[in-house]
Every structure is written in C-alpha cells, then in structure tokens.
Amino acid sequence: MRVPEIVEIELGEPWRLRENGAAVGIPLLLRERRSGERRYRLLSEVGDQVKLVDTGRIDKLQVVNGSAETVFIRKGSIVKGDTQTRALTLSIAVAPMSKTQAEIKCVYASKGIRGGSSFEFSGKIAPVAVTASLRASQGETWNKVHEYTASRKSFESIDVLSINNTVRLNELDRRRGTDDLEGYLAAEEGIIDEAMKHIPVDHVRQVGLAVVDFEGIAGVELFDHPDSWRALSKSVTRNYAEILARMASDVFEVNMEKVRRLVGGFISELQSMEGGSVYREGTAETYEIMEKRFTGEYTTLDGRLIHILVSRNESRSPPPPERPVMMRSMDHSNARLWQNRVVIGDLAAAPTLTESRERYDYKEEPRQVDAAGIVEYLTKKRGYETVIALREGPKSFNELHEKTRMSTATITKALRDAEGFGIVQRSYRPDSGSTVYELTESGRTLDPEKFKAATAD
Description:
Elements: E1 9-11, E2 24-30, E3 40-42, H1 43-46, E4 50-54, E5 60-65, E6 70-73, E7 77-81, E8 85-88, E9 92-94, E10 98-108, E11 118-125, H2 128-131, H3 138-151, H4 163-175, H5 181-195, E12 206-213, E13 216-223, H6 226-239, H7 241-244, H8 256-269, E14 275-281, E15 284-290, E16 294-301, E17 304-312, E18 325-326, E19 336-337, H9 353-359, H10 371-378, H11 381-390, H12 397-404, H13 408-421, E20 424-428, E21 435-439, H14 441-444
Parallel strand pairs: 3-6
Antiparallel strand pairs: 1-2, 2-12, 4-5, 4-11, 5-10, 6-9, 7-8, 7-11, 8-10, 12-13, 13-17, 14-15, 15-16, 16-17, 18-19, 20-21
Helix pairs in contact: 4-5
C-alpha cells in the first residue's frame, strides 16, 4: 500500500545546531493552523492509564490501554522497569479500553526477564543509529547500542563553558561502554538541550522535522497534528543530534535554498513509497517502508495517515573508505570528503568510493601494523574463535554468535579489537545490503592454528 495523503505542509526556516554544522534541520509546518481535537493521544500524554507489562519474552511487551482514547506509541520508545530495558521496534496505535502485544528489542541486558513486571515510558527515544537496528536481530541491536555508548564523540566538541556541562561530560564518560543506552541518553540529554536552547523546535504550526547532511536527506518525521509533534518534539530532535552535531570544514558552504528544494521534493515523493502491513489492531495499521535508499514506517488510523518516519538506510549505502579522501581539485588543500559525502550545496547523489578516487587526488595514510598486539589477540579465545569463524567467509553478527557460541558482549569486543588491528572489516551483502564482517587481506594471511594451544579466555 502506498503512503496515504499527507497533510499540506510548508517548510520553516532552516537551522543548524552550530554555525559550522555539517547538517541542517528543516521544520515542517502546516500551511494553516489546525483546530479541532486529534483522534488519538501519545503515550507520554496519558500517564498511568496505559499499562506496560513484561510478557516473560524478550521480544514482546503487553500494552493495556485503559483510557477512552486511542494511544499512539512511537517506534524506538524506550521503556524501563524492574526487568531488562526495551525499545519498541514498530510504532503502534492501541484502541481505547483494549490490550495488544508490541514487538520490542532489549537495549540493556542488565536484569533478568520476569513476566508480569511493569514498565514505564522513559521519555527517551533510541537514536537513529540504534533505531535502524531494531528490525534486525537482537544481536545486531546490542552491537549498535554498544557502538553508540562506546564510541560517541559528537558532543565532546561542543563548547562546555558551564560547570553543569562539565559534570554532564563526566557522567557521559562514566556511562561510556556500559551498554546502558537509556542511562547514556539521560546523561547526554542536558548537553544536547544546552546546545539546542536557541533552536526553534516548537513552532505553533510545526508537525515534523527533516534533517539534511552531506549525503542528502538523513531523515524525515511527520505527524498529522501540531499537538502530537509538541508532545515528542525534544525527544525526536535529540534523536538526530548525533547527525546535527557533526562539524564541517570552513570550506563548505550550505546552500539553504537548495536544501529547501531537496526537502520539498522529498516530501512530495513520500506518497510514491510503498509500505507492507506489519501491525494491525482495530482501525489502526502500521506499514513498513523498504525502499532502495530509505527505510521507515507509517501509521494510519481509520485509513488516514497520522505519522510517518523515514530515514536513510545506512546499511544499503556503499561502504565508506577507512581514511578520508583528499580533495585538491577544490583549491582547498585541507578539504576532506568524509564517507563519500558531497558538499550540501551541490545536493548531488553521493559518489561511490571508486568515483571519488577518480574525481579527486586520493591519498591514504599508511597503516602501522601492531604485530605484537595481533599475536596477543589470537592467543585469546575470543580472537582465535572470531578469526577461525571468518576464515570460512563473511558472517553477520548473528551468524558469528551462532557459530562461536560466545556472548554478544564478547563478540562485540572481539570484532572491535580486530577492526582496530586492521584484520577484520565490515562489508555488505549485495543481495540484502545487510552488514557482515570479513577478514581483510592482512587477516587472511594469519594462521590462527599456530596459537590454538596458547588460547585462553
């Protein structure tokens, strides 16, 4: 089914999180101020009238709507309680005085699972990098959570002049690498809000947001009513904060007029996208969008669109180069094209790595091989088992988990270390675009059997 008719919107004034930001936010506004009541409420608006209950399964959450109104719950909403913290893999609309089961993924495996335990909405939404994994395997979601909390650097570059922000950065450092996504987002929240305090995210007619970076459209989210946007505006905007916080070199100019034309054209094209039904309850239905370069979903109530969420499908993009590509043809010797991105002002399709090498003078820094570190890595069971498994061929995170029977945390560390040594790299399956891990040329020359007798946990 194609996306239903979208409310008539106009584009608000573009903004950047910082003057030299590499991404732009575009408010999406109703053409005319809408009056009248919505036909639903959001989870954050109904309080304890909606009960969230652990079913005893890691992938299912019971939702009991005790209110007299339909309740919409957005994809990526993080719920926490006495058992493992989870996030919804799909947006759902729950009919009045009814109950249903929502699909979820664990985002912090710190506790056991116990049927009947209660949850509550944390007020936080999984960031884009994690949200994209929620429709994949549980192992891939854990992997993305760990990557996010272990490797985040976007906000360390934001000026921290206040004592409060210094304290918050210290809290981020304490949370880093703990796999506690909700706790990490809580520590990060104050820093993001400080950086966004002058950003207008709640225009009286605003119903959504579009985010554009060097590759073009990064994401679009749109509700049918300003009150719905207002209920989640800060949470949704924080969801894109990692993209919005990236800095660009001084040589890059953002052509705001072209950005506006790009967003306007994309909004028009949304209605040509196809969605397959993945959830139905009463008169509400959620459809999943799987396009070549974009994935997402939209939810209808009584056949009318109430919410749409679309983001760039990073897993289907060409793999980025491991080193920045140098651009001398721009007469700026220090200009860099990161991850196949182009100047926003061009708004052209991102070139492939091969095209980038042909169009620009390419220089790659030589990699220093840590031979002693690799030897030590292979004497550890996690390193030995990982390399042995990948000698059979590329494998996804879940396939590695099934092959090695190691814990997800152990596999995550093993892969991160191997990538650091340059013996494992990520690539993409051409048929599905899913991420896999494979040995590099250096990795294929290793003979891990020599270290079998010396391996230890």
